Predict the 3D structure of the following.
Amino acid sequence: LNDHVSLESAHWREAFARSIVGLLVRHPGFAGVHLNIEPMPSGNEDFLRLLEEINAALPPDKLLSVAAFPPPTIWHWYPNVHWDEEYFAAVSQRVDQVAVMMYDTGIRLPKLYQSLMASWTRKVLDWPANTQVLLGVPVYDDEGVGYHFPRVENLRGALLGIHAGLSRYDELPSNYQGVAIYCEWEMDDDEWGYLSRHFNRAASD
């Protein structure tokens, strides 16, 4: 974390916020900015200060989005890549959108990953009140890294788990905005077809 950013430095945070505003001035067609700082331990107060300062500097019509970490789970014992409910809510209150990274769990059993996705779906939609939530799904094929097994963490498994979580609502939460694909440049025709058939269909289909 400290190799690339200095969240504890007010000077660094101010310069970073200023650089974002400059980017949006040069490219006014952008809807806003998306931040992805990893790892980000739950409870980091300097990150909250950064979000507040960026929000204060942004033009009023621009969105602030962040890559958010999923809730803690007994299936993944790495606290620096999970946010508890209090911190998830604190981040959500300071941004317009969270895209939850629901992958890199190291889980080796498809059914277990799908069950975790269902649980995470419910939690992250129930935690924030009004912030837009995108559910991050994995479509990359990293092999041999220990924290990701493509035969388990993939588009099909993620969507099955998300659908299971969403099915428990009588009506979809208003903060639910869909899924965020990571990373779309690794999508192949079969995956685009699966997404179209199992996620992008109209409700009346």
Observations:
- The longest strand covers residues 132-138.
- Residues 30 and 145 are 34 Å apart (CA to CA).
- The mean pLDDT is 91.
- The helical segments are 10-26, 45-57, 85-92, 110-126, 155-166, 189-198.
